[in-house]
Every structure is written in C-alpha cells, then in structure tokens.
Amino acid sequence: MKIFKWLFLIISLSVMAVGGYSYAEEKKQNKLQIVMQNLLQDTQYLVQGMMLEDYTLIAESADRIADHPTPGLAVQMKLLSNMGGDLSAFKTLDDFVHDRAVALREAGQSKDMERVNTEFTALLDGCQSCHSRFKAKVHNILSK
Q1: Backbone torsion region of residue 84, taken as left when φ is above 0, otherwise alpha when ψ lies between -120 and 50, otherwise beta
Q2: 2 pLDDT exceeds 70?
Q3: Rounded distance between C-alpha atoms, residue 110 and residue 112, angstroms
C-alpha cells in the first residue's frame, strides 16, 4: 500500500511540474495571434469553396472556424481579468461568430448556397465588428 502512495505522489508532482512549465511557456507566446492567423486561412479556404461551389471545402473550413483551438489558458486568463465591462460584449461577439460558423458548416453539408452566402456575410460582419471594437484593447492587454 505504501508503494502506491509514493507512486501517486510522484505522478502528482510530475503532472504539476509539467503543468506549471506549460503554463509558464504559454505566457511567453501570443497564441491568440496564431489562432487568428489560422482563422484567416480557414476563411480564405471558405471563400475558395464558395467560388468553386465545393460544399465539402465549405463545410470543412466552417468546421475548423467553429471549433478552432483556444489561445491557451494564460491568454484567456489575462483577457478575462483585464477586459472589464467589455467582457460581455466580447463574449457575445465570439459566440455570434461561432454560431455563424456552425450554421455555415450545416449549410455546406446540405449544399444550400443561398444559406452559405447569408451565413458567410453574417460571419464576416461578426469578425469585423469584434476586430474594430476590441483588436486594439486585446493587443494592449496581451502586450503588457
């Protein structure tokens, strides 16, 4: 029984050490910029899919936009603790863009180009609204 306690302690300490190291490394990088660059690339693929009427490419690109990776815990915590009264509006726009991407994925899967166009326009409006309202603030928060 004593060996199990020691083994548990060693594993727990190892997990905490690795987690602490990952958190420290994450703070050194602006992972949000990487996420945004990937979203831009997926948006470009989405446009390509629309131009070619490639519904598979539309659905796959929209899926990657809807389920994009997070910028990491350190970035999220820094934004949460510094957005102040803008946090609710920031989250609302993030949810809106996510929902439009989900709708785009569904429209691509059902090969409904009219709905693809409608949802794509709404997606771009959401992205542009978020960028125009929060890009400078987010940049200032993350560059501290």
Answers
A1: left
A2: no
A3: 6
Residue 58 sits in a domain whose CATH number is 1.20.120.10
Range of the domain at 87: 30-142
| Residue 61: other Cβ atoms inside 10 A | 25
Helix (H, G, I), strand (E, B) or coil at 40: helix
Burial 122-140 (b: 16+ CB within 10 A, else e): bbeebbeebeeebeeebee
- Give the total number of structural domains in the chain: 1
Give me the residue label for tokens 């009264």.
85
What are 76-108's pLDDT values in tens digits?
999 999 999 999 999 999 999 999 999 999 999
Q: Coil, helix or strand for 47? A: helix
Would you say residue 24 lies in a domain? no
